[in-house]
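Data deposition worksheet. Section B asks for the primary sequence of the deposited chain exactly as it was used as input, without tags or linkers unless they were present during the calculation. Section C holds the resulting structure in token form. Section D is free text for depositor observations; keep each observation to a single sentence. Incomplete worksheets are returned to the depositor.
Section A, Depositor: J.P.
Section B:
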Amino acid sequence: MLRKAVIAGNWKMNKTPAEAKELIEGIKPLVRGADCDVVVCVPYIDLAVALEATKGSNIGVGAENCHWEKSGAFTGEISADMLAAMGVQYVIIGHSERRTYFGETDVTVNKRVRAALDSGLTVILCVGEYLEQREQGITAELVAMQTKIALGGVSKEELKKIIIAYEPVWAIGTGKTATSAQANEVCAVIRSTVKDLYDAPAANALTVQYGGSMNAGNAVELLDKPDVDGGLIGGASLKPADFAEIVKAASR
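Section C:
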């Protein structure tokens, strides 16, 4: 295997600090010894608790976003330097909910990627299409464009600190899931795009996750596909038993 599977939970806007501690304590024994990387990406308010609760475990901690500036008049924002100073290892950038509800663009996603890399964080970079774009037959072009813009100015060496998550927007929180063939096809497009930008070894070393309603029931089929290297897990990451089943599927 050229690359290790990464299963990352995206908690979104869920869990108070007390609830976060309880959830992590529930997950820890179920994923101990997993043969894949395990990450929980939690709301800012839960980061301190998550970092403490995961000490000595095999679970990494990530944030759900960061700003591109180091400091300044950006009320309500958090910088990558702030996350790194806490001990946070990962950050999700460009999630479709950030793009859809909060006006993030391919350009601002690229700026956030740059800031996160400069702070030493590992980026989980999200790309994906809306249903109408899939129906128009432009999924491959759109995902390739998002990938190229997001990776602008990123060196081949820095690429080692990036995970790309394919998340079809029409399959997030809807219960709909891309078929394993659809997921693999677009993950392969991402890998091919990275090959064109860098080279084959860089593309082959890149971890590409699937992030559209992966759950305990469909994880094995999705993760069996050659270009699907892990998952960015939403709802199922809030259920210890379900999350552990996905981790188990990635550890096969």
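Section D:
The first strand starts at residue 6 and ends at 10.
The mean pLDDT is 96.
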